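Table S5 (text form). Sequence records supplied for joint modeling of the two-component complex.
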Amino acid sequence: MAAMQLPRERLREAYRLMRTIRSFEDRVAAEMATGDVPGNTHLYAGQEASAVGVCMHLTDSDHIASTHRGHGHSIAKGCDPAAMMAEIFGKATGTCAGKGGSMHIADLDRGMLGANGIVGGGPPLACGAALTARTLGTRDVSVAFSGDGAVNQGTTAESFNLARVLMLPVIFVIEDNGFGEATASSYAVAGRIIDRALGYAMPAAYADGTDFFAVHDVMEEAVQRARDGGGPTLLHIETPRYYGHFSGDADTYRTPEERAALRRDRCCLANFRARVTEARLLEAEELDSMDAAVAEVIDAAVAEARAAPLPDLFSLTTDVYVNY
Amino acid sequence: MPVKTFRAALNEALHQEMARDPRTIVLGEDITGGKGATGEKDAWGGAFGVTKGLLDAFGEKRVIDTPITESAFVGAAAGAAVTGLRPVAEIMFVDFLGVCFDQIFNQAAKFRYMFGGKAVTPLVIRATFGAGSRSASQHSQALYPLFTHIPGLKVVIPSTPYDAKGLLIEAIRDDDPVIFLENKLLYDTTGDVPDDSYTIPFAEAAVLREGSDVTIVAVGRMVSVAMDAAKALATEGIEATVIDPRTASPLDTETILEMVEETGRLVIVDESNPRCGFAADIAALVAEEAFDVLKGPILKITPPHTPVPYAPNLEDAYLPDAARVIAAVRRVMAHGE
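The corresponding structure-token record, covering 661 residues in total, follows.
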């Protein structure tokens, strides 16, 4: 079903998730500035429509492999923002009991195979989840989220080929935010990202990553193909990245005007709001009240995370193996 | 008891486990051989013939020939393992793991810990290793110390057909990622192997021989080198204990320390390179834990710190042999008399 025809509840859910991601990331940036977050984070703000437009087609038994910029994918796939916040603060109540941090948030019960500290680490894992689905005869699919940086990794290219050879139900979602770390994709990526699919005879589609409806619709077709045994698809989704590569990145390789323009002109939340209110699908007031509700959720998540205990020192040496 | 080759023992283990559990799959390069071609199917059954016949028994959905793409298929095996399968990936030569290390030690080995104990990754990666086949520097290494170094991986190095079968079945049933290393010169060796399925627990060393003078620790093909040396030494009145730890990780430290305490002397025979190697690890363990019982220096018999050479005379000189073990034992016997 094309996204503009989605039931109101689904549209509300899409907006709530995108707003949750935005608020979560802006709040993480603020918390980082206090110095109380032990590690580093890579923020997803600006890219919300991609995670949500893709993950709205997935169930808990479908899998995603994420990236170092994984908070948005995690929230869109159903991870608990409070547990994620606690994880980022390195607390025992975190998604990974404080042992993973921002770059390793995972929730296997939700089909979230983990953010990943290695660029290009995820695509082979997503092929594996798809291989599980094929072997067990389910109709589950998997998604490998990658950035424009990861398209230049061998693991990504190898995964395109393997997925196509074995006709695995996997969707490669390339989120092209214009930068691999501090290097522009216009410099680092030879050719067009979408054309990489041609070499593997893999179906591919492009979507504007500030347009939830466009992402939703290209993913709908890709998911259907995968569930029906039609093999992999590459989706090239062009998105803005509001923050620098990492949370302390001064981001001087872009001008202040350029950064401000991204937030002003390329905002998936503003786009969504305009579309659904103009079409009378949702009222501005209900969107406002969702914004307020999300703000409360994030406030509570931070308060809980700050109050939560550190991991017991005993856990330093646990869970290396199932048994050893 | 039926006599089987090391290769047949491994093949039987795979057959029995695949029959027992439909979640067990095998994948790798040419594990059937002939895929997409017009001639014989299952033409190779693996580069060393270990997976021959699995295709007929279990079909191509569970016996998967992959392209030459180690990063993708080892990573896929890790992803499949963490989502519910029990994959056995075959890497033709352990050297080739160099192109997919990330998938092994940053992904599979780390899932459980970095996800806070929630992931279970029952993955087996089988690979051949070892020098002696005139295959030179990129097809001959003994890289088990690299994997032993990584928390989250288990490392298995069978030395007999009996151990090969029991340890492979144990590895497939184990819920952690296991690197299972097969010395390619052992494939045609034979030994007693029961037809029935059985397992051998990890971290349980085999004490192959007991003597009061010296303890020799060896793994893989070096076990037979150690045994040859021990037999020769017995003729001159030196009685050696020979231990095969069988798994480098986890390691049966108790048996090693107990046997060293009985003899007071330790010689380690190891096919891996000497720096930060398996022998060095055992030596450090004994030096820390059993210093007071040692009558002389701990001696390590390893290759030199070089790549594996091609020319037969050079490769023969590279590999530890019984003569070097005997000389080392004689040297350590000069202490503590």
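Note: Chain B touches chain A through 47 residues (CB under 8 Å).
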